[in-house]
Specification:
Structural class: alpha/beta
Number of strands: 21
Radius of gyration: 30 Å
Length: 759
């Protein structure tokens, strides 16, 4: 019996793999290893997924490349060799792990890659909060717009189609791809290059040249485009002169603009004059930044196309550039998040348990759009569902607790490799804090020397090493696996230092410290600190007290209506991360009114607010008017909303389904709600009976505002019952509805002395 896969026998597949391996050895030998020096898996290669391209299909494509080889001294021959090299460089996906002896796992890209959600028109948003938080909220907004067909979802093969271009240009298409840290920009670039090399996309491009800005940082001398390409792809030799003749067939990819140390100026003045630094000839020697600028602005090789990736923090650099297509990577959808955990864990029971915990925690689930965050979740939560010694009731629920266990797992597996882990983490954290302050995520040997850090097995659990391409030599740079890990280590150092940084002076204008400060607040919690103290010793009590005092002062100063929207939102999350009941009761429970009027609250914000209300005995007044709360957000508030005496929900899009949620709060025996404002929340006749059933059993409600909704005469009988049965009601507003003859309702006032009905 012959085993077959999509019509190909297993024996034949093995034969083809032998051919490919032989070809790979041939490439290495022919190029003296130079061509593969540049291959460097990126820190974003964390996520797992599915791809509906089979190994057999790829083998067919590769065999076609092998069988059609031509002489290397022709453009066609170089093109073929170029494709062969690129698929060798991009066929593997590197997944990092801290839980096994092997630091990495290697997978076939086509087996593990899943298409991320990519949308058009990512331009025009100002970054005023941490990109991971902003993009989490933005993901949900774009998902809703996509469902309403207001945002168009793209496939990578559509990026260079003229129909998506916002500029009418015959000079080539310039594409910007925006994405938060860890969302998969570099991995998507790898997949694009791989698919082009396998002749699955972009047949219009004769050559694709992919560069990483991190590598371009090492070029400290003037260079021309010929030298730049040959330093990375030396086999091009003398054929580049022929390649230049067809610029329309060239695609240049520049990955990671946010990591570039050079300055690229796209101001109008430079674009309209013949600057001495303008590069118009591929043989012209200039700074590497001038080459990138000139390619994007159609000054160099007009007709070629360019793809640039960047984090949203550097989007302002491209505002005046000649960009044709703006796109944004949103990350994982809901089903893709579930699929990720199914692929991450071999045991599907563990996968299901972890995903269930994440799905039930709005804070963790909202950030799961980001593949790197999913990776951190998998590493941190997995042991709670696989190790007998871990108690599932202690599974992390805040992001500080989550990252605390991430570091705990590193210390548990690698702590014996170093004599004083506390000292190393203090120095590492100080370096990390400098990076957070300066928006720096790439560190060099000079940085390690400055902070007296020595490369070691232990340190490699926190920092990833990357080989940089240089014109002559290779150098090593370091990054934390994800920006949030850098921020957590920076916050941890604050609790390890004898003389911690004064956090009062930290500016929050651009959001760079948002996550860092959440971690700082969270580490004051005994539950978050306890696992780390097992390896690092006790945190200084004065430092913990100062962190709690800072949170208290921050919340008190921002709880008034004068605070900015982002400050108020951050205030909630700082307090939530502390998990400090006494502190919450002092700063929130004593306030006369908690007002968030006009502040857009997403479900994750509502979940945080609900938890904080739950820590208080009573909230006098909760003002949530015009907060864009919909049914999903209200659902997060319901468990604790009954603790509020006055609830103002005016101007939110709750709808009839929202009343069903409110009924749960109003029907609780210990409900304290005395007044509820439901003016203009989208109610119709369909919810009248639900409203009646909830209020009929309520013993506290005295004032009910149902004005400016869509009740009609159909609801009159039900509302009459409500007025008769609810003896505690003192006033009910029914103005600006659609009653044909409201007199019947008005007349009920005579039956209820003291009841005021406004219709």
């Amino acid at each position: 019996m012959v085993c077959t896969v999509y019509g190909m026998s297993c024996q034949r597949m093995q034969e083809r793999w032998v051919q490919i391996t032989t070809l790979k050895r041939h490439l290495d030998k022919h190029m003296d290893g130079k061509g593969l020096q540049g291959y460097r898996p990126n820190a974003e290669h964390y996520y797992l997924g599915r791809c509906n391209i089979t190994m057999a299909e790829d083998l067919n494509r590769r065999e076609n490349l092998i069988s059609s080889r031509v002489e290397m001294d022709t453009v066609q021959g170089v093109q073929q060799k170029h494709k062969e090299l690129l698929w060798v460089q991009t066929e593997k996906l590197k997944v990092n792990t801290i839980l096994i002896k092997e630091k990495v796992k290697i997978f076939q890209l086509v087996d593990q890659y899943t298409e991320l959600t990519l949308i058009s028109n990512g331009r025009g948003r100002t970054v005023v909060e941490h990109e991971l938080l902003a993009r989490g909220r933005h993901y949900e907004e774009c998902r809703e717009k996509h469902l309403q067909r207001k945002v168009e979802k793209l496939q990578t093969e559509q990026l260079f189609q003229s129909s998506f271009s916002q500029r009418n240009s015959t000079s080539g298409i310039m594409v910007v791809m925006i994405g938060a840290s860890g969302v998969g920009k570099t991995t998507m670039v790898q997949k694009i290059v791989y698919d082009w090399a396998m002749e699955k996309i972009y047949p219009q491009f004769q050559f694709v040249f992919s560069f990483n800005f991190r590598d371009l940082n090492t070029i400290n001398e003037r260079i021309n485009l010929r030298k730049l390409i040959q330093s990375q792809y030396p086999y091009f030799g003398d054929v580049l002169g022929e390649v230049w003749k067809n610029p329309e067939g060239l695609l240049f990819i520049f990955d990671g603009l946010d990591e570039f140390k050079g300055k690229i100026d796209f101001s109008d003045s430079r674009g309209n004059t013949e600057s001495p630094f303008m590069c118009t000839d591929p043989e012209c020697w200039c700074d590497v930044s001038d080459i990138v600028y000139s390619l994007i602005q159609h000054k160099l090789l007009p007709g070629c196309s360019v793809l640039v990736t960047t984090r949203p923090t550097e989007l302002h650099l491209l505002e005046k550039a000649e960009i044709s297509v703006w796109t944004e990577i949103l990350g994982f959808s809901g089903e893709e998040r579930k699929e990720y955990f199914n692929k991450f864990f071999d045991d599907q029971k563990v996968a299901a348990a972890v995903f269930k915990h994440v799905e039930e925690n709005e804070i963790l689930y909202t950030m799961c759009y980001n593949p790197s965050f999913c990776w951190i979740l998998g590493l941190s939560l997995g042991p709670f569902f696989t190790e007998k010694g871990r108690k599932q009731q202690q599974v992390p629920k805040t992001i500080t607790q989550l990252y605390s266990y991430y570091i705990y797992n590193i210390l548990e597996h690698h702590g014996r490799e170093i004599e004083d882990p506390r000292d190393v983490l203090l120095k590492l954290g100080e370096m990390a804090f400098t990076g957070v302050s300066e928006k720096k995520i790439v560190f060099r040997n000079g940085d390690l020397i400055q902070y007296n850090l020595q490369p070691s097995q232990f340190l490699s659990g926190f920092l990833m090493e990357h080989l940089e391409r240089d014109v002559s030599v290779q150098s090593v740079v370091y990054t934390f696996p994800h920006l949030t890990i850098q921020e957590f280590v920076a916050a941890l150092a604050h609790f390890l230092s004898a003389d911690p940084e004064d956090i009062q002076s930290l500016s929050e204008e651009d959001g760079r410290f948002d996550i860092f400060l959440r971690f700082l607040a969270g580490l004051s919690s005994p539950r978050a600190a306890k696992p780390l103290q097992r390896f690092l010793g006790q945190f200084p009590h004065p430092t913990t007290c100062r962190a709690i005092e800072w949170v208290q002062q921050k919340v008190k100063s921002q709880i008034e209506d004068t605070a900015s929207p982002n400050d108020k939102k951050n205030m909630l999350h700082y307090l939530f991360e502390t998990q400090n009941k006494a502190l919450t009761q002092i700063v929130l429970g004593s306030a006369e009114i908690l007002t968030f009027r006009g502040l857009v609250l997403k479900p994750v914000d509502c979940a945080v607010l609900s938890h904080l209300i739950g820590l208080c005995d009573l909230i006098q007044e909760l003002d949530l008017q015009f907060c864009s709360i919909e049914c999903a957000g209200l659902q997060q508030l319901i468990p604790t909303l009954h603790k509020c005496q006055v609830v103002r929900l005016r101007g939110n899009k709750l709808g009839d389904s929202g009343v069903k949620q409110l009924a749960l709060a109003l029907g609780k025996p210990d409900c304290k709600i005395q007044k509820i404002d439901l003016w203009d929340v989208g109610l119709t006749d369909s919810c009248a009976k639900d409203l009646l059933s909830a209020i009929s059993v309520n013993q506290s409600l005295m004032y009910l505002n149902l004005g400016s909704n869509s009740f009609t005469c159909q609801s009159v009988p039900t509302l009459c019952q409500l007025i008769r049965k609810c003896r505690n009601l003192k006033q009910i507003w029914l103005v600006e509805n659609s009653f044909a003859s409201p007199g019947q309702l008005k007349s009920l006032q005579d039956m209820r002395p003291g009841l005021k009905i406004t219709v």
